[in-house]
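re: ur question from yesterday

yeah so i grabbed the chain u mentioned. its 266 aa long if i counted rite. heres the sequnce exactly as i have it in my notes:
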Amino acid sequence: MKTRDIVWFFIIVGIVIGAIWVVQNPNYPIQPGLDLQGGLQVLLEADVPEETEVTAEQMETARQIISSRVNGLGVSEPLVQAGGDRRIVIELPGLQDQQQAIALVQETALLEFVDSGANPLPEGLCLRTTENNGRPSACETEDAVIEELPVFETVLTGAMLADANVETDPSRRFYVSFTLTEEGGQIFGEHTSQNQGQFLTIVLDKRVVSSPQIQATITRQGTITGDFTIEEAQRLALQLRFGSLPIPLRVEGTRQVGATFRRAIH
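ran it thru and got these structure tokens back, copy pasting raw so excuse formatting
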């Protein structure tokens, strides 16, 4: 028998053995993609004016951050890829909670620690901060945009966050614990030591999350408390852990993909 014939013989034997094994092990967890098991396809687009330049670096950074966030959801074999100069296409096979996924990938997740002085600020309040030079924020109403509103000083942003995790207190309420970088810890420590008794408001995407009073010097570790569900706390921790998006994104479209082919072969 020629060498080439021997090689082909073993290839065919290998294929036959593999086919027999698959038939005898129907529960082996082969991971089907979006076309086989269905799921959600999301199209994101940079939410900035047409005349505003969006660089390839910004879009690639946004793609990488979204990919990390999606992987944190535990979705099997998600796909996150560029869809042009200003777009990102996401495929989430077998996803159940669509709203959670859309919120997770779309939100900028800009975390700010804001000096609100002697006054706590109500949860949900939309702020203007020095982080974007006091410009109106996306969460403001149309009427509020034209008003002269106070601008709060940003002490620190999530860029100096090293880690974030979900924890529970003795009352079984959920909160997010965080660890700052060494540089962030120095800034945080200096501010909290000089402003005890004042309020340091925690702001996410320009909305107040909580407004705790400074009662001690805090350096590298702290907590974000609020009336969180487990899903909200997990989403916040994921957003903070994997960073803020360099540009805002909006959902341009979504498409539910049915598992048509998979249904046909079962």
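noticed a couple things. The chain has two domains: 34-106+248-265, 111-241. also The first strand starts at residue 39 and ends at 46.
anyway ttyl
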